[in-house]
Amino acid sequence: MVKNLSRKNRNCWLEPEACSRDEIFSFCSDYIDFLSECKTERECVEYIQELALENGFVPLDTLIKKGRKPVKGDRVLVNHRDKVMILFVIGEEGIEKGINLVGSHIDTPRMDLKPSPLYEEQGMALFKTHYYGGIKKYQWTAIPLALHGIVIKSNGEKLEIVVGEDPGDTVFTITDLLPHLAKEQMEKKASEVIPGEGLNFVVGTIPREYNEDGKSIKGVKDAVLELLKDRYGMEEEDFISAELTAVPAGRATDVGLDRSLVGGYGQDDRVCAYVSFRSIMDIREPKKTCAAVFVDKEEVGSMGNTGMQSAFFENALAELIALTGGNCGDLQLGRALSNSCALSADVAAAVDPNYPDTHDKENAPRLGNGICIEKYTGHRGKSGGSDANAEYIARIRQVFNGSNIIWQSGELGKVDLGGGGTIAQFLANYGMDVLDCGIPVLNMHSPFELASKADIYMAYKAYTAFYRYME
């Protein structure tokens, strides 16, 4: 560890001893590949699992079947329904003494297809959608969209579908009204400009057949169904057992003449997920057991059996306690959870020079100033958030300052403007100490979010220091 340094006005780019530019750009080149390839939670889990297995992680189910006791340094993987991933690195101390946990979410705002999505109107075939998470609906019109997801056919066969990402591939789009006819539309509030039921994207315009009079007798919808049948063996009813989603098409990219930013879809919160994944991959034989948790459904309240309010994490931890020779009763599990330390790795809202009045400038995260800690999130009056205690924040400060981590503190904008929550409140329900700690972004929840490469790399160093030195 290095000598404690003041954090005031520190900028990552101006401190090469804390993070060299070569390291920053190399790290973020790999991150851009991840962000481009992983646009759904299932794709994120598949990516993490493949690399984790290549790097010595063993599925927990395999250990259970063999009855093998994990020992210090063992690396254990839990895949929950292909939408949640937990990575453990077993420490020297018993799990009942607590673990060091970094939790992030891998779901992000998008356009989900409705259970019966396909319809025809005015000679066009379209897919109906139901948007997922908090969005500005007008941002999703008139941009190229790709289709990602799975379909479970009536015979049980699982199809994986990605359309719109490869060079030369077709894309989709949600149409918008031309300004020449948009007088009434442009007089509406921004939240009403595009209604939710208007977020339907075009999938085809060629009818299947014509009769002798030139009138369609088999429409565009029929033609689209025939294409789906030919390409995927899909029937219309198969949409009922499908998870198909429209996301912005194309790769993430460098932004700025200096290439200092990453621009792309889904950085809330896949930027923190990727960073915490890279961090735990580098942990070897820690004192305390370390865990990286990648969860689903945060953007809609962490509900459902893949959200943080489910019992999947405590169940996995109980199995691990039992395997390591401990008593896995409620008392021992409760001790392990309440003795644990956690970082809720979720993005922070960076102050935007185009909208400076949305933040208290003394408590505003800034791009390039390092990872951001937030004592609390929540809505007006801190409702729906977790409020970290002073003692725990002091311990985090000691770890970060002692490891020469460039960090800043912030809030999610001015008090009465809104707010938002993270999974911190659900981790706190276990009785563990938890602090929100993530990467500042601009354009949050838009189809094209921005993050500083320097902050991304500093977050990697911060999470690694937390795993190694938090006691």
Give a structural overview.
The chain is of the alpha+beta class and 471 residues long. It has helices spanning 21-37, 41-54, 60-66, 183-186, 190-193, 220-232, 267-281, 312-323, 330-338, 390-402, 424-428, 453-469; strands at residues 58-59, 75-80, 84-89, 100-105, 110-121, 124-132, 145-152, 158-163, 173-174, 201-204, 209-210, 216-218, 242-248, 253-255, 261-264, 290-295, 341-344, 348-349, 371-374, 407-409, 433-438, 440-442, 449-452. The protein folds into two domains: 12-108 and 265-469, Aminopeptidase; 110-248, Aminopeptidase i, Domain 2 (Roll), CATH 2.30.250. 28% of the residues lie in helices and 24% in strands. Strands 1-2-3-16-4-17-21-19-20 form a nine-stranded mixed sheet, sandwiched between helices. The radius of gyration is 24 Å and the shape is globular.
Q: What class do helices, strands and sheet pairing give?
A: alpha+beta
Q: Name the assembly state.
A: single chain
CATH topology of the largest domain: Aminopeptidase
CATH architecture of the largest domain: 3-Layer(aba) Sandwich
Overview in brief:
With about 475 residues, the chain is an alpha+beta fold.
What labels describe this entry?
nine-stranded mixed β-sheet; seven-stranded antiparallel β-sheet; Aminopeptidase i, Domain 2; 23 strands; Aminopeptidase; 471 residues; 28% helix; alpha+beta
Give me the secondary-structure topology.
Elements: H1 21-37, H2 41-54, E1 58-59, H3 60-66, E2 75-80, E3 84-89, E4 100-105, E5 110-121, E6 124-132, E7 145-152, E8 158-163, E9 173-174, H4 183-186, H5 190-193, E10 201-204, E11 209-210, E12 216-218, H6 220-232, E13 242-248, E14 253-255, E15 261-264, H7 267-281, E16 290-295, H8 312-323, H9 330-338, E17 341-344, E18 348-349, E19 371-374, H10 390-402, E20 407-409, H11 424-428, E21 433-438, E22 440-442, E23 449-452, H12 453-469
Parallel strand pairs: 1-2, 4-16, 4-17, 17-21, 18-22, 19-20
Antiparallel strand pairs: 2-3, 3-16, 5-6, 5-13, 6-10, 7-8, 7-13, 9-10, 11-12, 14-15, 15-23, 19-21, 22-23
